[in-house]
Amino acid sequence: MAEIIINNFQQGSVDSPFVGFPRFQNLTVTEKTGSLKIQPRLISYLSTNALPVAIVKDFVNGSIYTAAGDDLYKGQTDLGLSGSLGTIRDIKVWKNYVWIATSTNIEVYGPLDDVGATVPSAVSTGLGSSNPHPMVVGQDDVLYIGDGNNVVSVSGITEQPAGTTPTASVNLSALDLPEGEVITALEQYGLWLVAGTQMGTLYPWDRTSSSFNSPLFIGQEIFQLRTLNNQLIVQAGNKGALYVSNLTSYQLLRNLPINFRTLENTDNKFNALQFYRDEILYGVGGGGTELESNFYKGVYSLDKGALVLRNTISTGADGLSTVVKIGSILPIPDSGSGNLMILVGWQDDSSYGVDTIHQSGHRYTSYTGLFESPLYQVGDEGTPVTFQDIEFRLSKALESGEGIRLKYRKDLADDWTTIGTFTSSNITGVTHRTNAVIADAHNVQIRGELTTSSSGDAAKESPELLEIRLRT
């Protein structure tokens, strides 16, 4: 009797269904058993008037600030600054102010410990209107801003009462890159301040020399930079690829699955690459307004080499019918519980907002935790194969509200056919076998969908799928 065994979920998504699992969505793999489990889900935290491009936390005073369009939000409150600021490109908390890089100005909101905090006159008005303006606070306690081919520095801050602009020393060309370069990302890497550019080059600068050190050419537009374990993580190119570099060389860390790499482009924002525990989190969205039927958008996770679509946004959209973009991600400790939480700024068509996720929060429901198996070649032209039954094994019995739905198809272009839906009301125990007549197959692919109840203890309420066996 021929048998297909589906497990090894730890490998995550790979480049093609011909070599591995092409899709994991809203699922995680448990370390102890290797079983699939539903992720805690994103829930709505804040509605905004535009895509949130930056989320920061003031760890001294405890407030969270979000920049979206021409407005600034404190916690879940709109500060009412729309119209007084230009389009905000990035924000940072520094020296008791929220520093704001708009399309043309360097602005501040503060002082943050003053109940009368407000936006006074601009600190500087010299930024180029068409440039991204990523910001980073360096190890030398200087604020750096990308502006075209220039790195702007802000230092020597003297705080002033609310309504008065703080004094600051602003150098609009602390470092200049070759003409034609546009800085798209900034990051501190060891002693170096690293500028990534639109033309695909990393420029390291020691922050004191008059020029940069030897640049490293990657050859694709650099969208995101983050430092992890003395390595520089680089998101470059409009297909969502991740690279790792030591500024001397670079190598590919991971591609998105092949159904993404056939697209014209993805939409990647410089504040949407972060670290959460051992995971690299990065937001993947669609470019422009074109939709792709196989382009799943949301927050991706790369954990121990396994790539998954970790979280779809609170609206439920995954980019198949509306444009979804991720503008910013911020993992922070939750001051209430002490657990880590994640904030995610998103766009769903013409709606915008910030979601939050708690490790102790509710999980995804309505069978939206799902995976797709490899496409298995099981027969040739003259000898197709018929499968008679399917068996799955769990690491624990299903509890109330939990369920698993299994589907199959015999070709990548086919619709999915449901084999069965299994809940605590129709099966017991950790192993279940049922009829699954899949006739005259040359190829077969299995899809598993998991659900749980919308309330209760999230630490317990998820199916834990260990293995599926398909038999002739």
Q: What can you see in these coordinates?
A:
This protein is mainly β and 472 residues long. The chain has two domains: 3-24 and 366-471, Jelly Rolls, CATH 2.60.120; 43-358, 7 Propeller (Methylamine Dehydrogenase, Chain H), CATH 2.130.10.10. Helices cover 1% and strands 49% of the residues. It has one helix and 40 strands. Strand 31 (340-348) and strand 32 form a beta hairpin. The radius of gyration is 24 Å and the shape is elongated. The protein starts with a strand and ends with a strand.
Low-confidence stretches: none
How many structural domains? 2
Overall CATH class of the largest domain = Mainly Beta
- So, the CATH homologous superfamily of the largest domain? YVTN repeat-like/Quinoprotein amine dehydrogenase
